[in-house]
Design brief:
Oligomer: single chain
Mean pLDDT: 91
Structural class: alpha/beta
Number of strands: 7
Number of domains: 1
Radius of gyration: 15 Å
Number of helices: 5
Strand content: 15-25%
Strand order of the largest sheet: 1-2-3-5-4
Low-confidence stretches: none
Length: about 150
């Protein structure tokens, strides 16, 4: 299994797929899985975008909050599945609402599941241990700060 770990795209999701395709073409190596390790840029509502993501969107010439909405509504299609953990620059309430729904739907195996929040976009919530391609991954998102890591 070959996977890529990608971080801090801040909503420039199309760039991830473009860079991965270019790297694969250059190296001749095909990646089996893509893992985005925080600050992916999950912002379905432009009104909720934080200041840092807004800054990145402007710098990269993207709509406010990046291009996640384009993938979520089908204007763009993810070229392959991408798995991600939350960063500190995501719409936390949106992700938590998806967690609550999944917890209610799958009470017996919730902690071993990913959550598909848009086509081919699989969220791995904090504390989950999931199997992907025969390997197990544990997830803990956020940022390395007291408020994230000292959660009891």
């Amino acid at each position: 299994m070959i996977f890529a770990a990608i971080g801090d795209s801040h909503g420039n999701i199309s760039l991830i797929f473009e860079r991965v395709a270019a790297w694969e073409a250059r190296t001749g190596i095909v990646l089996d899985y893509l893992f985005q390790v925080g600050d992916f840029g999950v912002w379905p509502n432009p009104a909720s975008v934080d200041a840092m993501t807004r800054k990145h969107s402007e710098k990269d010439g993207l709509p406010t909050g990046g291009d996640f909405r384009d993938y979520a509504v089908g204007n763009k299609v993810a070229s392959r599945p991408i798995y991600f953990i939350r960063g500190n620059h995501e719409d936390q309430l949106f992700l938590m609402n998806h967690e609550r729904i999944q917890m209610a739907l799958y009470p017996n195996d919730y902690w071993s599941r990913t959550i598909e929040i848009a086509p081919n976009f699989f969220y791995i919530p904090d504390g989950h241990v999931v199997e992907i391609g025969g390997a197990r991954f544990a997830a803990w998102g956020g940022n390395f700060a007291y408020k994230t890591w000292d959660s009891g």
